[in-house]
Amino acid sequence: MTDDDTTANDTTANEATANEATAGGATPQDTPQDTPKDTEGDRELVARLVFGSLAAQTVRAAVRLRVMELIGDKERSAAEVAADAGARAQPMTRLLRALASLGLLREHTAGSFSVTPAGAPLDSRRPDSLTSLVRMFTEPMMLRAWEHLDDSVRTGDVAFDAIFGKDFFGHLKEFPDLSAEFNAAMSEAVRATAAVLPHAFDFGRFGSVTDVGGGDGTLLSAVLREHPTLTGVIYDTEEGLSRAPATLERQGLTARCSPVAGDFFRSVPAGADVYLMKSIVHDWSDEQAVTILAHCRAVMPPAGRVLIVEPVLPEIVDAGTAGLTYLTDLNMMVNVGGRERTRADFEDLCRRAGLSLASVTPLPRAEPYFLIEATAA
């Protein structure tokens, strides 16, 4: 190879690099010469993340059209599903194929589909259904604040409040259908915890439990069923308690558990040995969280307990095990003003509320949740 050949080849390579950079919206001088070329896997990861919102809306459409219910446990054609859904066959085929590409359906022969195990919870008839969770977390109201995530990062303000002129829960109160959907979504979200919490703590040592912010009573009902000597109180707002009487009736617990309406920023009911909170503390700022915990501390007996069920962030991100927790942290930021916390954060909240952190234990099969146990300081 001659010097002229080398020069010619270098020139060709440089032109190719410049063309590639320009195609991506950059000019040659904008592209650092010492930066390694992105691998295909890296670029695919970025593209997959960017298109994530499209995947979420695909799942939302499947739920709204009742796709999984219409297919059921059989193999059905797209034309049959479309007819039952009141939709056109060709667009339905495209939707079903997109769902198959996401792993929620399987296409057996051209235009014929069945539901995969991953897609099964999108059937509202199932006891493990996640349809309310899908509807709520793809609801335009929930997503509006995410459009202003950068504003919340810059200012520290809650984007939702600025957009709607009131806080998230105040807004829900004005829309009964949305409030009911939110309560149903929270009930679906708590089921995994309800399956393991009754065995993760020795509730049998105590006589009574108050579930602060307990919603429809799914979690406390599970605890009471496993510990027949316990009595309980579900404490929440009127809106939050709307489904609690039906839950207690269905579980045969009306004689052992009572719904009590109130505001945990003002007080919590006295008389319980254990005060339980699942996914409550992360909804609020540090000051508000301390207020709730301090109200529990004020009425708990000397040997009582405060149990907090929340994700616990590590001090340093482990991308391999982080899951969705850091995204829920951002959701807290833009929609309600709360945050996910580390163990040190929980220790600080408890100390400020007159409590002492006794233990932090991961809940198996209910990741990413931990059981945080606190005693009187």
TrEMBL record:
Pfam families associated with the record: Dimerisation, Methyltransf_2
Any coiled-coil regions, as ranges: none
O-methyltransferase dimerisation domain span: 48-119
Region annotation (Disordered) ranges: 1-39
Record keyword GTP-binding present: no
Domain O-methyltransferase C-terminal positions: 146-355
Keywords, alphabetical: Methyltransferase, S-adenosyl-L-methionine, Transferase
Low complexity composition-biased segments: 8-27
Molecular-function GO term, any one: methyltransferase activity
InterPro entries (alphabetical): COMT-like, COMT_C, COMT_dimerisation, SAM-dependent_MTases_sf, WH-like_DNA-bd_sf, WH_DNA-bd_sf
Superkingdom per UniProt: Bacteria
Single GO BP term: methylation
Protein name: Methyltransferase
